[in-house]
Design a protein that fits this description.
Length: 398
C-alpha cells in the first residue's frame, strides 16, 4: 500500500525548499539524505532577490538577511583597468522586496531549513539513508534506500522529488540523459580574513575581474572574502591547495608584505549540463540533479530553489486533484530557464572574464559601460542577472 506522502531525496537547499512548501500546504513529506546531517562546507554564497522573496514564505528569507551581508552593488572590473561597470540593484525596487544581492553562506540556509522542517508536523527528515533505486506504478513510487549499516529498506510515496545533487542516483536509475560539457579549468575557491575592501579602491562586495592571463572573482561574506581563481587541471588538488601555492596565487591577486590568513580552500570541477527530462512519471528532478552550470553569476543554488518552488506549487495542485500532466509545465518552464538563462548567462560571464583578444575585451568592456550608463538597459540587465526576468517570462511558457 502506497503511503500518502511525497518522498524527497536530498536535504540540500533544493530538496528542503520543496519539502517546506509542500509541508506548509498540508502535504506529508519524508526527506532522506545519505549524509548524517546537512553539509556545512563552503559552497554557494549569493542569494538573488527573488530567492529571498520566495524564502520569506517560510520566514527564512529574513533570517538569511540577518545572517548575511546586504550588497546593493556588484561590479565587473579588469585587473589592469580597474572598475569597468558597477551594477546598481536598487533599480529593482518595486520588482522585489529585496533589491540587493545577499552574501550569505549556503550552509546557513541549510541549517535554517533543516530546523524549520524538523519542527514541522508534516515533515520527516531521515539522515544516513542513501537512495539507490526507484520504481513506480500508477499509484506511486517505491524507493530503495541503503542504511549506513548496509541494510536495505523500501519506502513508498505517491510522488518523489529527486534533489540528490549533481551525481543523482535517481536520475541515473531513471535513465535520464544528462549531457553537456565540462569546463577545462578547475575552480579553486579560497577564503581569507584579509580585508580586500580596504586595499582595493572602489571595490564592491561582489567583483568579477577579467584579465587576459587569469580572471578572478572576489566575493565578500559577513566574515571573510572568497577568492575564486581558474586553475590548471594538470595540478593535483594537493598541489593547488598547498599553502605555499595558495599564498603565491593570492599574492598575485593583491601583493602585500604579510602572508595571507587562509581559512579554507576547495577545488571543484565545473560542468554545464541540463537533464533531458525533469519529469518521469511521478518523479521530478530539481536543482543540481537537473542542471549544472559554472558559479559565475551565482545562479546554481538560486535556480535550483526556483525549481523547487515551481515544482512544489504544481505538485500541491496535483495532490489536491488536478491531473499529473500539470507537471509537464514544470519541466517546460524550468528546463527553458536552465538552458536559456542560467547556462547562457553563466557561460557569457565566463567568456567576458576569460577573453584574451584585445578587440573582443574592449568590445565587452564598452558594452558593459554603455549598459550601466543607460537607465533602461541597466535595469534590464539587473532584471536578468538577478533572475527576476526569467521568472516573469515563465507565464509565457505553456
Ligand atoms: C565545492 C562547491 C562549491 C560551490 N560553489 C558555488 C558557488 O560559489 N556559487 C554557486 O552558485 N554555486 C556553487 N556551488 C553549487 C551549489 O552548491 C549547488 O548548486 C547547490 O548546492 C544545489 O543544491 P541542491 O539541493 O540541488 O544539491 P546539493 O546541495 O548537492 O544537495 C544534494 C543532497 O542530496 C544528498 N544525496 C546525494 N545523493 C544521495 C542519495 N543517493 N541518497 C540520498 N541523498 C543523497 C547529498 O548528501 C546532499 O545533501 C558549489 C558546489 C560545490 C560542491
Amino acid at each position: 500500500m502506497t503511503e500518502a506522502r511525497v518522498l524527497i531525496v536530498g536535504a540540500g537547499p533544493v530538496g528542503m525548499t520543496a519539502a517546506a512548501y509542500l509541508a506548509n500546504e498540508g502535504i506529508p513529506v519524508t526527506i532522506i539524505d545519505a549524509h548524517r546531517d546537512v553539509p556545512t562546507d563552503l559552497r554557494a554564497s549569493t542569494f538573488h532577490p527573488p530567492t529571498l522573496d520566495m524564502l520569506d514564505r517560510f520566514g527564512i528569507g529574513q533570517k538569511c538577511v540577518e545572517q548575511g551581508l546586504i550588497c546593493p552593488h556588484w561590479q565587473f572590473r579588469d585587473r589592469r583597468e580597474g572598475v569597468i561597470a558597477t551594477f546598481d540593484l536598487s533599480l529593482l525596487k518595486g520588482e522585489t522586496n529585496h533589491p540587493y544581492r545577499l552574501q550569505c553562506e549556503q550552509w546557513k540556509l541549510s541549517l535554517l531549513l533543516r530546523d524549520w522542517l524538523q519542527a514541522h508536523p508534516n515533515a520527516e527528515l531521515i539522515f544516513g539513508a542513501r537512495a539507490i533505486d526507484v520504481t513506480q506504478n500508477d499509484d506511486g513510487v517505491t524507493l530503495t534506500v541503503e542504511r549506513e549499516d548496509g541494510s536495505h529498506e523500501k519506502m513508498s510515496g505517491r510522488y518523489m522529488v529527486s534533489a540528490d545533487g549533481a551525481r543523482s542516483n535517481i536520475r541515473k536509475a531513471l535513465g535520464v540523459t544528462f549531457e553537456g560539457m565540462t569546463i577545462p579549468e578547475i575552480f579553486l575557491s579560497m577564503s581569507t580574513t584579509f580585508p580586500f575592501q580596504d586595499a582595493i579602491a572602489d571595490l564592491s562586495n561582489i567583483a568579477y575581474i577579467s584579465d587576459p592571463d587569469e580572471w578572478v572573482v572576489l566575493l565578500r561574506t559577513p566574515s571573510l572574502w572568497r577568492v575564486l581563481l581558474p586553475t590548471d587541471p594538470n595540478e593535483t588538488p594537493e598541489q593547488m591547495k598547498a599553502p605555499a601555492r595558495v599564498e603565491e596565487r593570492l599574492q598575485a591577486v593583491f601583493p602585500k608584505a604579510e602572508p595571507y590568513d587562509v581559512v579554507h580552500s576547495v577545488e571543484y570541477r565545473v560542468h554545464e549540463k541540463v537533464a533531458e527530462n525533469y519529469v518521469v512519471g511521478r518523479v521530478f528532478l530539481a536543482g543540481d540533479a537537473a542542471h549544472l552550470n559554472n558559479p559565475l553569476g551565482g545562479m546554481g543554488m538560486n535556480g535550483g530553489i526556483h525549481d523547487a518552488m515551481n515544482l512544489a506549487e504544481k505538485l500541491t495542485k496535483v495532490w489536491q486533484g488536478e491531473p499529473l500532466s500539470l507537471m509537464g509545465r514544470y519541466e517546460r518552464q524550468r528546463r527553458k530557464v536552465a538552458v536559456e538563462t542560467v547556462q547562457a548567462q553563466s557561460l557569457r560571464n565566463r567568456s567576458i572574464l576569460n577573453e584574451r583578444r584585445p578587440d573582443a575585451r574592449r568590445a565587452y568592456h564598452d558594452d558593459l559601460r554603455a549598459t550601466v550608463e543607460d537607465p533602461a538597459r541597466h535595469k534590464a540587465y539587473v532584471m536578468r542577472s538577478s533572475l527576476i526576468q526569467s521568472l516573469n517570462d515563465l507565464e509565457g511558457v505553456e
